[in-house]
Amino acid sequence: MKHPHTRTLYDYWNSLRLSRPAPLRSELNPRAIKPLLTSMFILQRKSDAIYLFRLAGTGLCHRFGRELRNENFLDNWRSNEAASIKSLFQSITQDRTAAVVGVTLIYDDGSQGSMEYLFLPVRLDATQEIRILGCCSLLNEAKLHGARSIARQEVASLRLLWPDNVSRFMETAAPKHVANDTSEAPPPAHRRAQQHGHLWVIEGGAK
């Protein structure tokens, strides 16, 4: 986690859930995370290929140059990038993991920047439905001000987080290669691992 806002939201989410896999949606207190709200969002899974923005902060909408509510999060990525994110979201909604994704931003004027996403599971009250709570934080914010809008995103890194003190992690330093090559070599035999689509989740790694 490179940005302080990423760590702040992760720690807040972790304090709410206690020993549960995920906290309840109703337990989130906007006042407790007020500085983060403009960059936060909530996604609803409609299918494996559709994760709709149910809420999207004004800062996030400004970066994309439009209102994001009811848009499919996966539509903002090229097909190979979307495949990696979709595998990540399946782990979040099914296994209650958390995830950090680093991205390269390409703006409509051709300039580039970088941003960090955090994705966290939250549960709707009295249901088993999991929604994805997230936030995005610019990593070179001082250089990225003005009227530019994000035209494209490219995955730079992926990391799956297991918050219950379970020493398992997944990280791909070159996700473009992974997305284009589904025959990515498995982890070393001395570590137990499970493959999720393009991604490997490895037991025994460092957080």
Describe the structure.
By secondary structure, the chain is of the alpha+beta class. The protein has one domain (4-165): Beta-Lactamase, CATH 3.30.450.20. 21% of the residues lie in helices and 35% in strands. The chain is built from four helices and nine strands; from the N terminus they run αββααβββββαββ. The protein has a nine-stranded antiparallel β-sheet, with helices on both faces. A hairpin with a 6-residue loop joins strand 6 and strand 7. The longest helix has 17 residues, at 79-95. The protein is globular. Residues 166-207 have low confidence and may be disordered.
CATH architecture: 2-Layer Sandwich
User: What's the overall average pLDDT, rounded?
Assistant: 80
CATH topology annotation: Beta-Lactamase
Going by CATH, the homologous superfamily would be PAS domain
Distance between the termini: 10 Å
Q: Strand content of the residues, in percent?
A: 25-35%
The domain count comes to: 1
Shape assignment: globular
| Main sheet strand line-up | 2-1-5-4-3-6-7-9-8
CATH class categorisation:
Alpha Beta
Number of strands: 9
Rg calculated over all Cα atoms: 17 Å
What's the order of the H and E elements? HEEHHEEEEEHEE
Helix content: 10-25%
Count of runs of 4 or more consecutive helical residues: 4
The major beta sheet can be summarized as: 9 strands, antiparallel
| Unreliably modeled segments | 166-207
